[in-house]
Amino acid sequence: MGEPLGLLQVTVIRGKKLAIRDFKSSDPYVIVKLGNESSKTKVINNCLNPVWDEELSFTLKDPAAVLALEVFDKDRFKADDKMGHATLSLQPLISVARLRHIVHVSSDGETTLRKVLPDSDNCVSRESTISCINGEVVQSVWLKLCAVESGEIELKIKLIDPPGTK
């Protein structure tokens, strides 16, 4: 776990059908964690289908890394309410990045290299694709939130090679 495997850019795109934690709505925000790094989106007031479209960056060091996210409802006078959590194994994304170097995938256009299907071992809510888009490995994924009545979060994850590895 010494040398970085690359820069992980996580775009928190939007949430869908998030749980109500205030009277009629919620004020959601997302905390994304990778290893000992964490980052937070802005709060979207009075919204159960928020659009964040925020890019968060992390250094990827562990080939068995798991991306974790937690959704909270911002409260003014008490502790923020939990609105669910989800995890995503980054192994498929890392495997595709390595495969791309081995088979020399073209850097022009878009090539789908792998699909990740929902199952009991992941929080993926619908089929997710991992593609090589103009030379970058990108995964588009919807994650179902756990420990909550409802909710999904859409992410776009991009793995950028460390300098000097192209």
From TrEMBL:
UniProt keyword Cell membrane, yes or no:
yes
Protein's cellular compartments: Cell membrane; Nucleus
Q: Which GO terms describe its biological process?
A: abscisic acid-activated signaling pathway
* Coiled coil region boundaries: none
The cross-references to Pfam families, in alphabetical order and at most eight, read: C2
Keywords of this protein's UniProt record, alphabetized?
Abscisic acid signaling pathway, Calcium, Cell membrane, GTPase activation, Lipid-binding, Membrane, Metal-binding, Nucleus
Identify the InterPro entries for this entry. C2_dom (IPR000008), C2_domain_sf (IPR035892), CAR1-11 (IPR044562)
Principal place where this protein is found?
A: membrane
Q: Does the keyword Membrane apply?
A: yes
Picking any one GO molecular function of the record gives:
GTPase activator activity
All copies of domain C2, residue ranges: 1-104
GO CC, sorted alphabetically, is: nucleus; plasma membrane
Q: Which family does it belong to?
A: Belongs to the plant CAR protein family.
Return the protein name: Protein C2-DOMAIN ABA-RELATED 11
What is the source species? Raphanus sativus
Gene behind the chain = LOC108848380
